[in-house]
Amino acid sequence: MLDLRPQGLQPAGAVYAQLPPARAVEFALQNREAQLADNGALVAFTGALTGRSPKDKYVVRQTPSQDQVWFGPVNAPMEPAVFAEILDIVRDYLQARPQLFVHDGYVCADPAQRVPLRVISDKAWATLFAQLLFRRYAPGESAPAQVTVYHAPELKLDAQKFGLRTDVAVILDVDAGAIVIAGTQYAGEIKKAIFSYLNYRMPQQDVFPMHCSANVGPAGDTALLFGLSGTGKTTLSADPMRKLIGDDEHGWSDRGIFNFEGGCYAKCIRLSPEGEPQIWQAIRFGSILENVDMDPVTRRIDFASDRLTENTRAAYPLEFIPGIEPTSCGGHPQTILFLTCDAFGVLPPISKLTPDQALVHFLLGYTAKVAGTEAGVTEPSATFSTCYASPFLTLPPKRYAQMLRERLEKHRVPVWLVNTGWTGGGPGVGKRMPLALTRRMVQAAMAGELESVGFTLDPIFGVLVPQSCPDVPTQLLTPRLAWKDAEAYQLKAKQLAEMFRAKEQAL
User: 336 or 380: which carries more pLDDT confidence?
Assistant: First the structure.
């Protein structure tokens, strides 16, 4: 009886809406969309595309947003007439399918900022994913959708006809609140399309949208952890000593911090119960595993395998993590950490930034790729993603940097740079920073334990390095002391510092 006419749909087949997880799993298994693992998780495989397609993202050149949108490589412009034709094709495709699955929910935990949404797909597992990642209404609660996702993962658009780069398209009309996802089964596109939409909408409400995790301590102190994929946002925010607000996307309003989402989408390559016990325990019935390797007979998951992709994922609701902050909100942050996986092995494991340095590093958004993770990459390579969120930004980066500047000045929040990558050299020479020690340094920063230990100025990067940290070997804190070859350290450190300067000048 669900009325989809507001979305321009009059389906010929059955429509299933607001399915409980068990029913959604049944449909996904019945339709051979996914399989069941021995731990109870639903396992989906997304075919050739096991990650996002950032070069296939388009934003409709529409009034009034066109004067604000950051058009270019990140947001390719699309004319309204072209989008209207594509939307008609997608609607025709969906309403002709034998089954449609609908999830109604919302984003933004702060009631003053709530944005109702609707996700429509012909895949049951995709709407279960939306149910896990977005916020869920209480029984009897609902609201008309302000943004709709039309999800047609197996529909291939005519790239030549519509001027697309490929037959994959993620298209946002931020004025109409319409999102089309076609040609890709990777579920992360649903999550990040909504985040891109919020990166336009939230600044209109004077809310700073952030690609970060957040948690809150026993004293009510909120901390933010910014970082690109693989730098440890999810792992380090899941701390049994603190309550998790969220692992990936948040807003900062004049009331404080709030989670956009209602679930987590964790990278799970090489996941172990010893290293990340909270995430390990969250993967059970009612969760989704994406592109993980699984024994076809025993259905046992091999988290160490990257046979299908390095980008294996787990989706689960926040309540699967013990000790979460039930409101998904927190006060104004008292600590901000920028996480970077430095594969050169030259950045200090933790250092304090001045407000001006914090803005520079925010705009740089540095991390590094490790040799061997991509074809042709034979040594560490620097990666820069402005605001730690370049693929999801809808407005120019300096708009977000200005919002950060205003909040740092008003609330006087200390900002720390944390290297979760290598020490003593890059891969093959040095070693990966031990997670337990990184966690201890992060905890010390959040608890204010580093404010009185004394600092040393790093002569190459100009950051302040703590002279000590409880339970962390002092030698580890100074990168050059961890290198056996002091001359090799100087060469690599200066090389990375020059990359920073060149990128900063280009901003």
Answer: 336
